[in-house]
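#random but structural
TW: two for the price of one
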Amino acid sequence: MSVQLRPESDAATSDAMTGLPAQLLHDLRSPLNQIIGYSEMLSEDVEGQQREDLMKIRAAGRRMLAVIEENFTSIHENSTTIEGNDREEMAQESTAVTRHLTVAPGLVLVVDDDAGNRDVLSRRLRWQGHDVATASNGSDALKRMRETAFDLVLLDIMMPDMDGYEVLGHIKADQRLQHIPVIMISALNEAQSVVRCIEAGAEDYLSKPFNPILLKARIDSCLEKKRFRDRETALFEQLQANYERLQEVEKLRDDMRNMIVHDLRTPLTAMLVGVEMLERDAALNAIQHEIVAIAAGGGKTLLGMINDLLDVEKMEAGSARLQYDELFADVLVASALDQVASLALAGENTLITEIAPGLPAFAGDKNRVSRTLVNLIGNAIKFTQGGTVTITVTREDNESIRFAVRDTGEGIPSEAFARIFEKFGQLDSRRVGTGLGLAFCKLAVEAHGGHIEVESTLGIGSTFSFSIPLAAP
């Protein structure tokens, strides 16, 4: 039913259409909210004539609310008028929905300066299964929020001293509270107010009197989103803790490994000195010399592996300092080929060098650049049988020297390109080694300010290349 007031003058008509002051509208709607709310809750627990009477009270309250909205607000809202079968249907639907929780109950704080409003809303929430606390003003609400972990806050906008907007601002500015969802509530349903609340960080907005079905849906949605965020936060914190613990364990492991490896180098060096002295003993026969040579070769290989590991660890930690000298590409290549010549002969491989004429000297750490070349050429020979290994050196962009080692071996699958440069990274179990050689090469080249890369085709061969700047960085 719609009731129209008929003002006696045009001025009165203008005032009515312009709307009453917001505080007066709030004061008119608040008691109606309580009448409608209490009658709704009572009607859910009674049957027969009593229920019919309560529904009439509720309908009367809604008609009074419709009168206010249609005659004294500047923005007309779609009022709900319950008549006949419609009101009975909503009452049944409300009872069914409010008594069946779709999410786990939460701890809700209701903030409203009107005791009646707090009571109506608190009863409704407890009916739905939630635990409820109340606050009568903004300062009390903020104090309670800092003392208790609430899952949701229902915050009235129009309150004395500190209104809902100001309270919302304090909540969102406090790092301890800003994750708590806030639903703003008001006896006024104004678009400008809704926008202001959402922009300030409110999760949602509800106007009084509450439709119990809508109230439950909004609360369930907010609680579900908060619990999802809480689970996400807890998972992130757990991952962070696990990551920090993993870093601690890795550091302990690396420290222990470095200590063991470092301690191994001293006795191994002493053993090698003894084996080399024994190798020079003229009293040994041919077989004994061969056995001693094998022992010496194994010891040198092991010492090289220990040195590689220690160097890789130092470079990863950034504690290795480069000793810059004036280097010449042709000298470095010749020295590297001398060290791998016997390996190439054993594999029946042909070594080819292609060094561009007139290459300038460049600044670099002789030991690390030389070891990089030896590692790359040695790998190429190791995985090429009866083929060709070509070493080329060119000038790149007039700013760096580029070394490339190309083989005609079995090749490397493209998905393994990144892995082979990792520490202890190996292509497959058939390739015997520590997995430190290419990791050392990558770190040594990057320490010079250069870059290393690989190109490969299965069954055709691979090319490893690296560049070193002409000048020290």
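TW: number two ↓
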Amino acid sequence: MRYSPAKRGFTLVELLVVIAIIGILVGLLLPAVQAAREAARRMQCGNNLKQIGLAAHNYADTFKRFPPGNITDGDCCSVPSHTVWSVALLPYLEQANLNARYDPNLPMEHATNSFLRQQRMPSYNCPSDPTAGQLLIPASGPHNNSTSMTSSYRGMGGVGWGLAGEYIYRRQWDSSDILNARALPSLKGIFHWTGRVNGQSNQYNAETFSTITDGTSNTLMVGEYTTKTEPRRTTFWAFSYTSFALSCATPESRTLIPDYVKCASQGDSNPCKRAFASMHTGLIQFVKADGSVNPISTSLDMNVYRALSTIAGGEVASDQ
């Protein structure tokens, strides 16, 4: 008889050690993988903003002015609304067919325009935004309980202001409130309300390159907004009523966090409806009026943030 030595396998202890080592390696690699994925998402998000900037420039080349921030009829609030900067740019984002479905003679909330409002626009969705690309009913406005598509980018309306005796930044640049004498022209941004009251136009027209006297490289044009709470307060690209496609700069750090409820718990809620925020840790990406894409830190000096948000404030400030 021949002797056959017994085959030796792994002991239970050895298997547990190997499993523990694999677990440690996975734990070490996972943050790096997640960071790489977020970097890729942030890059795609920035590329979207770059395309928006190019589209805005092409629009301005065609019409000799930038698109209006938004247009509504009558005084705030819940009045019919019409076009908005993000709809006006559709033909310059290779969306001429979708733009052809929009009837500008009817309010944006009209059933005829529901097809437009409910379309998912990849160019307006940041991959890091968990609320983008959903059909939701906006939290306010004349939506008639009809859904609209959520998105990630809002136009810069300007710096908030207030009436005598009220919160200093309660009023914004997305409605006929700006006809009040306290809405100083030095506070307006590139995309503000240009609507009508009682069928009459007003002194607020769409802006041109020549009206951006602060310099196009010093002026924020479109930036990110999303929220982890109250998703019906997020961005809606084709819902032109007041704050859903437009935001304004409020020089308070609470308006730069992606959490509507937390922001509103710290003061007046109006600026929180018109905030800028992203899911990128510590930064928010913007495209400036010169077409360049730059992140701003959420810990940015508020005086600098205020200066970057106006087109003709006369401030001397750098975001570097």
